[in-house]
Design a protein that fits this description.
By secondary structure, this protein is an alpha/beta fold. The chain is about 40% helix and about 25% strand.
Length: about 675
């Protein structure tokens, strides 16, 4: 029997699962994700699942990895420094289409060049300016290159990339390799994000492979794409943008495999995010506009996932304004105080007890900081460097690292770069205090909650009377924000039927009263009419109340806590290649190929040329991605117009999808 290993590296936990012949779960295990060196967390989870199942490492026929780290990096604004070469576009496009936001202050060059819609050169590529700019450029981890109408003719992207590699030796992402669709600025955003993620994902995959090799697993490693399909690890290293929503996509595949549900809303709560998708007829719906994550719309084909900065490790923000006060959660992830105390108990408990004895609360109460392990320290502004120098590898009270108000801005920059880790109060601490989870230090969680409970609100009263009340306030807020996220997803699917946008409906007082079953002169009822499948290690802590708030059936399946790891090994490899034929003049049919446009005098010949290219490219890409027994599916969109009683060709888009099961290595 073939045994498959699925591994998912999330923001908090790394999960591992063994599945026999794709039919039966043999064992599952968890370990803490070790961001400073992912091999430790991956190795610990894999060793645990092998030990519990008594399966020898050399019996593993296939290993597959899904990860939320790329998604989390974009949500949290992290990743390597990049540079953008923007060819043939206007400088003002940078601000209009979100490129400046995606660049986060990183360098860019608007360069003369580009092509027209028909693939002809609009202006020569200004290589002299590019070479001068590259020579004087500071250190970056990678480059993104986007040229006008590169999907019609990639010549200028190819030439610029060649020059960049020759001068800098750094990896280059070309926009036409990530998408065959038009919309250059959107392709540029996708290329920038891909370039930013290359170093991070390369390290992740490399360390995962090292960990498996150390254990004695020789099976090939696959990686889950954002649409739930699999690809070889070598492909993922160069196209990491395709791994955004990898973990959530795997969870959808795993949820369907576990539950057998045909129509449902899948809500996966992790440490950093809650990811919501729709199952229709047993398949996850794909986003026709490309994956959106971290505020950026990309051209990556992925499940139609709504990603919210809401998780078990979301930072709890205290609201002191108003007579009632309250809390809000996220969107940033912090390490729970219960986890910080589990790792550095003496420091954390000493600080918490000192803060509890203080006569008045402080904004830094129950907040701790430490330097991130294994991070390369870049050149930093003096103030940032000075703050970082005060921070050691063990947790320390946050207030001890800050000498002035100006240090707070420096700390925010260090956090965004991933150079420091902050610990603060989270929903995970609340459920520890309520006894629903006992993984870490519940006593530290209770002390942190006591510190928050004594904060004064607008009425002058304390925010909460005691620890349990404070914990319940946080859990109730998690219920409200999760209800809003799920309701928004459902309304987004059907809001066209009501003449209002989804957000307006979600926040409408009448909708909220209907969910509560209002009875007055009017009888108002509302409910989510399909099951909600709750996934994630902490789903059982929150989702029964969420189901009640939505008047919906909630499915909490055995194995749901490792659904991502399950989805990592039950999917297929699937690769789509697309191409376009245009007609620049009557009687001329132009096929836009990676090597450049090729003209034909007959439509049939042009179609035959493109079909041949796409079939070969899709087959080759699927095999390179690790597939066997490849099958092809074809789709054609040929647009014509009626003129003088005859059909006139306008444009054709052809797609070929190659699919197959991953190659496995059966051991004797």
């Amino acid at each position: 029997m073939a045994i498959y290993l699925g591994v998912d590296t999330g923001g908090t936990y790394t999960d591992a699962v063994l599945i026999e012949d794709g039919q039966r779960i043999l064992a599952s295990a968890k370990s803490l994700t070790t961001r400073h060196d992912l091999a430790h967390g991956v190795g610990a989870a894999v060793r645990a699942v092998l030990d519990s199942s008594k399966v020898a490492p050399d019996r593993i026929a296939l290993a597959s990895l899904s990860t939320t780290l790329a998604t989390n990096a974009l949500v949290e604004g992290q990743g390597g420094g990049v540079a953008l070469v923007y060819i043939g576009f206007r400088a003002e496009d940078l601000g209009k289409h979100g490129l400046l936001e995606a660049l986060q202050g990183d360098p860019h060059l608007v360069l003369s060049g580009g092509h027209n819609h028909a693939g002809g050169e609009a202006r020569p590529l200004d290589t002299d300016t590019l070479e001068t700019w590259l020579t004087g450029l500071g250190p970056v981890s990678g480059f993104a290159v986007a040229s006008q109408f590169a999907t019609r003719n990639p010549a200028h992207e190819l030439a610029a990339a060649d020059l960049i590699r020759r001068i800098t030796g750094r990896p280059v992402t070309m926009s036409h390799e990530l998408s065959a669709q038009l919309n250059g600025p959107k392709r540029a955003v996708t290329a920038v994000l891909n370039a930013r993620l290359i170093g991070m994902i390369d390290r992740l995959i490399g360390r995962a492979e090292d960990a498996l090799a150390d254990i004695g697993i020789r099976a090939p490693l696959m990686v889950v794409r954002g649409d739930g399909a699999l690809m070889a690890s070598a492909v993922a290293r160069t196209r990491p943008i395709e791994t955004i929503l990898s973990g959530p996509a795997a969870s959808i595949v795993g949820a369907q495999w576990l539950s057998g549900a045909r129509d449902a809303i899948v809500s996966d709560i992790g440490g950093t995010t809650t990811d919501i998708a729709i199952l229709r007829d047993g398949k996850p719906a794909l986003d026709p506009n490309g994956a959106q994550v971290g505020g950026f719309r990309t051209m990556v084909e992925a499940v139609a996932m709504r990603t919210h900065g809401l998780g078990g490790d979301s930072e709890v923000h205290i609201i002191t304004e108003g007579l009632q006060g309250g809390v809000r959660l996220g969107p940033r992830r912090v390490l729970p105080v219960s986890l910080a105390a589990h790792e550095d108990g003496d420091v954390v408990h000493t600080a918490l007890e000192r803060q509890l004895r203080a006569p008045a609360p402080s904004e830094h109460d129950a907040r701790f900081i430490r330097r991130s392990k294994g991070m390369e320290i870049p050149d930093l502004p003096p103030r940032d460097a000075a703050v970082l120098d005060r921070i050691g590898p063990r947790f320390m009270p946050l207030g001890d690292a800050l000498k002035s108000r100006m240090d707070q801005a420096a700390l925010t920059r260090l956090w965004a770069r991933g150079l420091v880790q902050i610990s603060a109060l989270t929903p995970t601490d609340a459920v520890h205090a309520l006894g629903r989870v006992q993984a870490w230090d519940s006593d530290a969680a209770c002390k942190a909650l006591d510190l928050m409970a004594r904060r004064r609100i607008g009425s002058g009263d304390k925010l909460a009377a005691d620890t349990v009340t404070m914990a319940q306030i946080i859990v109730d807020q998690m219920t409200r924000q999760t209800r809003a996220a799920i309701l928004s997803a459902a309304l987004d699917e059907e809001s066209g039927d009501f003449g209002l946008n989804a957000q307006a409906l979600c926040d409408h007082p009448m909708m909220l009263r209907a969910l509560e079953g209002h009875r007055g002169l009017l009888a108002l009822d509302a409910a989510v009419n399909v099951p909600v499948i709750g996934l994630g290690a902490s789903a059982h802590c929150y989702y029964p109340a969420v189901g009640q708030a939505l008047n919906a059936q909630v499915i909490l399946q055995d194995g749901a806590e490792v659904a991502n790891a399950i989805g990592a090994v039950v999917g297929q490899i699937s690769v789509t290649q697309a191409g376009t034929i245009t007609s620049p003049s009557e009687g001329k049919f132009r096929v836009h190929l990676p090597a450049g446009p090729e003209d034909f005098a007959a439509q049939d010949l042009a179609l035959q040329c493109l079909w041949t290219h796409l079939r070969g490219a899709a087959q080759t890409a699927a095999i390179e991605a690790g597939a066997e027994d490849v099958t092809l599916a074809e789709e054609a969109d040929i647009r014509t117009t009626r003129n003088d009683g005859r059909d006139v060709f306008i444009e054709a888009t052809l797609k070929v999808t190659a699919s197959g099961r991953p190659r496995i290595e059966m051991q004797d």
